[in-house]
Each structure stands twice: as C-alpha cells, then as structure tokens.
Amino acid sequence: MIEPLLVAELLLLGTATGFLAGLLGIGGGMVMVPFLTLILSHRGVPGDLAVKMAIATSMATILFTSLSSVRAHHGRGAVRWDIVRAMAPGIVLGGLVAGAGVFALIKGQALALFFALFVGFSATQMLRDKKPKPTRQLPGAAGQTAAGGGIGFVSGLVGAGGGFISVPFMTWCNVPIHNAVATSAALGFPIALANTAGYVVGGWSLPSPLPGSLGYLYLPALVVIAVASVLMAPVGARAAHAMDVRQLKRVFALMLYALAGYMLWRALAR
Fold first, then answer.
1. Residue 8: Cβ within 10 Å count
2. What does the pLDDT look like over 131-145, one tens digit per residue?
3. Which of 69, 111, 140, 265 is the most buried (most CB within 10 A)?
4. Pairing mode of beta strands 213-214, 217-218
5. d(CA 185, CA 126)
6. Long-range contacts of 251-259 (CB under 8 A, 24+ apart)
7. Residues 82-107: tens digit of each pLDDT
C-alpha cells in the first residue's frame, strides 16, 4: 500500500512536470529527477540507486506526457513530422545504447554529477537566448539522424525527454520556436520508449529496493506522476501558443540552477 503522503508528493510533481512538458517542449526530467531522488532517498533507497531509479522513472513518464502534449500541438499543426521521421532512428539507437548499456555501468554518483553539469549548461543556454544566423538550415536526413543519436544517448543518461537539446538545436537551425517545441514533444516518445526498455533490461537482475520496482523503474511513482502529468500537458501546450514564454524561460532557468546545485551536492557529498 502506497502511503498517502507519497501519493500527494508525486501528484504535485506530476502536475508541475506535465505543465512544463506542454509549455516548453521538455519531458520534465530536469525537474523530476532531483525531486524523485529526494523522495526515494527519504524512503531508504541507497544514494546511487536512488539517482538511477529517479532517472529511469522520470524517463518512463515521458511515454505518457509526450503523447498527451503532442496531441495538443498536432491539433494546431505545429509538429514538423519530417524532422521527427529523420531523427527517430538515431534517437532509438542512442537511447538503447544509453539505457541498456552505459547507464548500468556508470555509478549513480557520476550520473548525478553529469546531470548537474548538463542542467546547468541547459539553464545557461536558456538565459542567453542567442539568436541563430538567418541563413542556417537543418542538416540533411543523415545529419538529423546523427543528431538524434546524440540526443537519445544524452537523454538516457539524465532521464530527460531531450527537449533541452532538440529545441535549441532546431531553433539554432531557424526552425520557429513554436514548431521546435511541438516537434520536441513528438520526439519525446521514441526517446522514452528506447530508454525505458533499456532501463528494464539493464536493471532486471537488481534486488528490489522498494515494493513495485521493475528493473530501475519505480512503478507506483510512474503511475501517479503519469496520470497527473498527462492531464496537465495539454494545458501547458495551450499556454505555449497563447503567451510569450521568454520571461518564463528566464525564471525556469534560475530554478534549474538551484536543482543542478542540489544534484551536484549529492554527487560530491560522499
């Protein structure tokens, strides 16, 4: 039986991350991983394993939030399906390599450090809001597939939906921001599918640290967060088309610095 306080914490986390998934085209992992790490640690999961379970569970929720978010974006004709088709094969390959191979071999401490550095870099890029050269275009199909491989691999190590790489990459190539956010939401599904399969296979032989664990996944958290985030992702998607998100991105970037600091502390305080 899952305790009521845990349900409340997970519902709040799912509501926030679902809204951000729709609003900014991110999977919510940047917010979810630090808080899930904290929640799992407080329930007796060892530090290294808590980080890995938080990353894996965060990624699995993106299976649901991405579908909910992309449905709202697709209804507005904002998804660039040509980019999705070109990037998806690389994303799946990179995700499988990360989730089933590299993830299981790296210590949770190293993953926490990588996560902190990656989130700090992402926050800096959001604050810079650098404009691309007007002549720059997306690479060809092979280049997009290669970019997808890198996005899928890095996403698998940090438990994020790839939006913090794919959105800047597409806007750098002069894809309009609303199309980039919508397309990033669609790319979240193959990223999550490949990596989640890898996390289950890679952690299959682990002893279960909590009731309801499957590989590196914590299923009760997955279910509660997924329900809340699926309900909120369309709300965020509608807000993205109705507002200028630049100011919100600045505030969000500052919050990411705080979360990166927490994960850095977890990585070094051992």
1. 11
2. 666 667 888 889 999
3. 69
4. antiparallel
5. 17
6. 252/20, 252/24, 252/126, 253/123, 253/124, 253/126, 253/127, 254/123, 255/31, 256/30, 256/119, 256/120, 256/122, 256/123, 256/126, 257/120, 257/123, 259/30, 259/31, 259/34, 259/119
7. 999 999 999 999 888 887 777 777 77
